[in-house]
Specification:
NADP, 7 helices, 10 strands, single chain, Bacterial bifunctional deaminase-reductase C-terminal domain-containing protein, Riboflavin_Biosynth_HTPR, DHFR-like_dom_sf, alpha/beta, about 25% helix, 5-amino-6-(5-phosphoribosylamino)uracil reductase activity, about 25% strand
């Protein structure tokens, strides 16, 4: 049975059923009420403080944060930062107190400078062809080759798991989420529905078509007093 609840005024959304993260890939996305994944090329304009706090908390429960390079550039990604409380929770969950690294999927190696030179060092998931370019060779990050001419997302996730990063948090964008869905790699999907209309906001590129939709089970529905709805789906 789906857990339907109203978020208490003095509670945080993260306190409702998000710990611990599932083994595998957990994706976290936000959409407008009319289905847009962003506004003016970014997800930020759709968000709210509670959604931002949830994003930070989900990072604390993951081994690694997976993101597409386009989203990393658009949102000006920097290294993952944890509050003292999230560090405490991370230790309780069996992780160390250090924040998880960012793993960025990129064929071009174009990463935001705000992400570079940080600790922990970011991970670049790229192809063998791109790994030999001058741009990638000069990046201050760990390079993991996943595929020959383009990034193979199945191989990328397998290599992250092989490193011991079994709890992967994907933060999008839509192109990366489509690739994970098409490869049947999403184990849990956390969705924030923003009470706004954003119109047609084309983001990313469509992945190869699927033969049939993948069925998920709705585990939880939360509603806060600002009208935001937080949904959590998992494989049945």
């Amino acid at each position: 049975m789906t857990n339907l609840a109203t978020v208490a005024p003095d509670a945080a959304v993260e306190d409702y059923g998000y710990r611990p993260a599932p083994a595998g890939v957990r994706a976290n996305m936000i959409f407008s009420a009319d289905g847009a994944a962003g506004f003016a090329g970014r997800a930020g304009p759709l968000s709210c403080p509670a959604d931002q706090q949830l994003l930070l908390a989900l990072r604390a429960y993951a081994d690694v944060v997976l993101v597409g390079a386009g989203t990393a550039r658009a949102e000006t990604y920097g290294p993952v930062k944890l509050s003292d409380e999230h560090r405490r929770q991370r230790v309780e969950l069996g992780f160390g107190p250090e924040p998880p690294p960012l793993a960025v999927v990129s064929q071009s190696g174009r990463l935001p400078t705000t992400m570079l030179g940080s600790s922990p060092q970011p991970i670049l998931l790229t192809s063998a062809r791109a790994a030999h370019t001058e741009r990638v060779a000069e990046l201050p990050c760990e390079v993991v080759v996943c595929g020959e001419d383009s990034v193979n997302i199945t191989d990328a996730v397998a290599q992250l798991r092989g490193r011991g990063d079994g709890r992967v948090l994907c933060e999008g964008g839509p192109t990366l989420l489509d690739e994970l869905v098409a490869a049947d790699l999403v184990d849990e999907l956390c969705v924030t529905m923003a009470p706004v209309l954003a119109g047609c906001q084309p983001l990313g590129q469509a992945a190869a078509p699927m033969a049939a939709p993948t069925r998920l089970q709705l585990d939880q529905t939360l509603v806060d007093d600002t009208g935001y709805v937080y949904l959590r789906y998992r494989r049945p």
